[in-house]
Prior knowledge:
The chain is built from 6 helices and 9 strands, in the order ααααβββββααββββ. The chain is of the alpha+beta class. The strands form 2 sheets. Strands 1, 2, 3, 4 and 5 form a 5-stranded antiparallel β-sheet that branches. A 4-stranded antiparallel β-sheet has the order 6-7-8-9, covered by helices on one side.
Amino acid sequence: MKKKRKKNDGKIATENNPLLSAFKKKLKAVKKPEKKPKSIPKDLSKMIAVGVWTMIGTFVFFAFLAVLLSISNRSALNDLARQQEQNSKQKEEVSIVAGERFLSGFVEQYINVKNERSAAEKRQDTLMKYLVKDDETDQETWFDTSGAQGDRVLNDFVLYNVKKGEGDSLFQYKVNYQNVVKIKKKEHKIEKLALLNIPVKHKGDEFAVSGTPYLSEIYDLKGDIASSLEEREEYDGDQSAAIKEFLNTFFRKYAEESKDDMSYVMKTPETLNGHLVFGDVENIRIYKKGDGFEVSSIAVFKEKETNLPVKERFSLSIVKNSGQYYVNQLKHQ
């Protein structure tokens, strides 16, 4: 009986306390926050794969770019090397011309010897100016003519060959001269033909004679050199006669007509424009080449006034267009 009383007493106390009752109502009205489900971590494998392939693609792109740049740089360097080589060759050709100009006075002074003391001293002084500077060599003895018993007279000379070395060259001149001597007060002239060899040092376009000139026999420049053309089988098919007929027509036009007229039968028009007249075509050789033909022949032209024959060897690349033969290329050989 006592326990029931206590419980009822608490309820009665609550009902009798309006503040406590209002607090409990508000407490019940407050909602507990819902528990959100824990977020599931995203699958990062796709992102990693994309990143890796992007890096690989970037690496491949830059590697390809590096190769292109390397090829470009190598090509530029090769072009520069070729240009330098070409400039060097051009300079070398100019140097030969300059060397010939430098030595022309030397050759005259060296070959011409007059058996007089004053003339001999003047010759020696002049020739000394062409020499390299060398304090250890007695260069004055190079041109000593003491003991001579006659004169040497230059008729003419021409540059024959130049044998080149590194900083040194041997200029060879073909000289025609006379040895003049007096026997019993009668003058005798002996004709001579020889090579005058002159050692030369050069630095760019500057030259100096570096050794004693000397005479030698003239050697033949003609060599036993075989043609490098490959042996090919000549064409002897059903178009042979037509090609030969075309050649006669073509070279007649080539001799007489203008460039405008020749444009109908050749890619790069050229012509004699009436300077010569056509005569004949000789030694015709026809070779099949791709869809066309390569023709080697000798065209015979003549001077109008004297009928003097002028022969020239040609090589023509011929094709057939719309039933007509056409010269794609003409070479003078």
